[in-house]
Amino acid sequence: MTPRPEATSTATTLGPDDVRTVGTPVDGHVPDVAPDLAWDDRRLHYDLVAPANRRRFTVIVVGTGLAGAGAAAALGELGYQVECFTLHDAPRRAHSVAAQGGINAARARKVDNDSLHRFVKDTVKGGDFRGREADAFRLAQESVRVIDHMNAIGAPFAREYGGRLATRSFGGVQVSRTYYTRGQTGQQLQVAGADALLRQVARGTVTLHTRQEMLDLVVADGRAQGVVVRDLVTGKVRAVTAHAVILATGGYGNIYDKSTLARNSNATAAWRAHRRGAYFANPAFVQFHPTALPLMSQWQSKTILMSESLRNDGRIWVPLRADDDRAPQDVPEDERDYYLERRYPTFGNLTPRDVASRAARERIDAGYGVGPLKNAVYLDFADAIARLGKDAVVARYSNLFHMYQQATGDDPLSTPMRIAPGAHFAMGGLWSDYDLMTSVPGLFVGGEVGWGYHGANRLGANSLLSACVDGWFTLPYAVPSYLAPLLGTPALAPDHDAVAESLDAVRSRTGRLLSTGGTQGPARFHRRLGEILYRSAGVTRTPEGLAEGIADVRALREEFWQDVRVTGEGDVLNQELERAGRVADYLEMAELLCVDALDRDESCGAHFRADHQTPGGEAQRDDAAWCRVSAWESPAPGATDARFVRHDEPLTFQAVPLQTRNYA
């Protein structure tokens, strides 16, 4: 195994004041009305663009997942000219396909006392009161339209015998509000969204650019007015200008190297936008999914996600005896610890992801882990099969069972699955106001690249929903309101100084990566970075570990720029160059992630500080000091003060009063 870089002698003495200063607060521009009325009020007061004038505006959309495809298709349908970019060879290859379990909606179709307000309560509480309450109401209100819309454009939702759309339960709730297409929900929604996008391509309102990676943001006159992209096939670098830019490029979970994300998923577009002035909100809020597959080897390229929907019928347990080497079938019932059911009897195996992941990690670290590497817990379907029959269980999860068997060689119908927490979803992202506009005017975000709905922990099946709400039903209102005063203003000229500066910056960075001539490939640095982050900023964090992590990341970043090896040239297909650029961005972002985790002196949701926990081992918030969003500004290159600047947005809660989370 590669030895980790040694921390500096001052690592454990680093405190928040050594790495950050506090700047001016930021305004989320939430309407000054009750949170349940905010979205109706904002829509009423948005400026409009007349249909005949819409074709005079050009909007860039980067990303073709559910948020990007939805925004591009909706704006194209409205009549705007859209330039849409994806690094994939087809829009349907975006990573939204990987969200398997379902999509939530507050439709209250079952008589189980669900409602819009209960949806908001579950979402706000699930996020441990670190997201915007008004945003959660918008998510709930538009969820009804999302299901109807996606059903109308071809998503094959599961149905009850009488034809009504079926639902099931998910973690963190006690009602049934999750709509699904077996274990393929993200895939089917993505196919429907991509088809809607391609319809606009055929109509001529959307121009689709495949195999193009955004490498910089063009900012002129204080506004986002374009992007710089690299053709991944030819290596050509060019700039495209527009009146507004939408980023829908996903989350940054791959910063941990071993994550549930596709290997191509990355944070480069978001991070380059951040370096151009877009504040980054709560980077330490990273979700570790409790039902990922455990690593079998350090050389494994990624972890594999098993849908949270499996926890509807699967029971999670470990042997009562530490270091028990017996096969699971040989462990009698009275020698099994169903620890989630024991600790959280009300929610049981459907506790929120942060709670379930911490509980699993605690059992594993205490010596009760199972499997060849003792790094997993069991997810057992024996009771469900006995109760419902094998055919019924297979009908619900067939493709997930097949995926597990292909990955591990074990049949989950006859032996329990082995699962473990794995880096998954980023609740943090580019800071944006209520209109999804960042601190750079004209730069909007949609989906996981943003931050607003999920607070410190996302509830399962809210990710597909938030991406759809942003893409189909928020950005098509907010972006035109921004554009309306710009009527008659041409798009930025291709020869503008800001365009030339962004192009030069990209070419200079590319040239530096190609000319370093080191001895280690970018994948090696990425793996070492992941080891640092899992150790220092993983499921459980400590001030000492985070201080050491900051020192280790700085040392690794310095080593990267001295010793990275990037083979090939820049003006051709070069996947090593792509990887190197993304890893370079991760090495910058990783320091901010650790700084944010060190600075936030509390536990909340997925940000669990060992020095802030209740006697029962649960997260202990500090609402008096930390009921706010941390929106970060990075120091400029070469700045004399290399500290990050934190801008705070206070959070208030009216409909869902602050309370201690309790899932027992």
TrEMBL record:
GO BP annotation list: anaerobic respiration
Chief subcellular location: membrane
Name of this chain's protein: succinate dehydrogenase
GO cellular component: plasma membrane
Record-annotated active site: 353
Catalytic activity: a quinone + succinate = fumarate + a quinol
Positions of the FAD-dependent oxidoreductase 2 FAD-binding domain: 59-464
Molecular function GO terms recorded: electron transfer activity; flavin adenine dinucleotide binding; steroid dehydrogenase activity, acting on the CH-CH group of donors; succinate dehydrogenase (quinone) activity
Similarity comment: family membership: Belongs to the FAD-dependent oxidoreductase 2 family. FRD/SDH subfamily.
Phylogenetic classification of the source organism: Bacteria, Bacillati, Actinomycetota, Actinomycetes, Micrococcales
Region (Disordered): 1-21
Membrane topology: Peripheral membrane protein
EC number: 1.3.5.1
Superkingdom of this protein's organism: Bacteria
Pfam families assigned to the protein according to its UniProt record, in alphabetical order: FAD_binding_2 (PF00890), Succ_DH_flav_C (PF02910)
UniProt subcellular location: Cell membrane
Domain Fumarate reductase/succinate dehydrogenase flavoprotein-like C-terminal: 526-663
Entries under InterPro entries matching the protein: FAD-dep_OxRdtase_2_FAD-bd, FAD/NAD-bd_sf, Fum_R/Succ_DH_flav-like_C_sf, Fum_Rdtase/Succ_DH_flav-like_C, SdhA/FrdA/AprA, Succ_DH/Fum_Rdt_flav_su, Succ_DH/fumarate_Rdtase_cat_sf
Cofactor(s) needed for function: FAD
Keyword vocabulary terms for this entry: Cell membrane, Electron transport, FAD, Flavoprotein, Membrane, Oxidoreductase, Transport
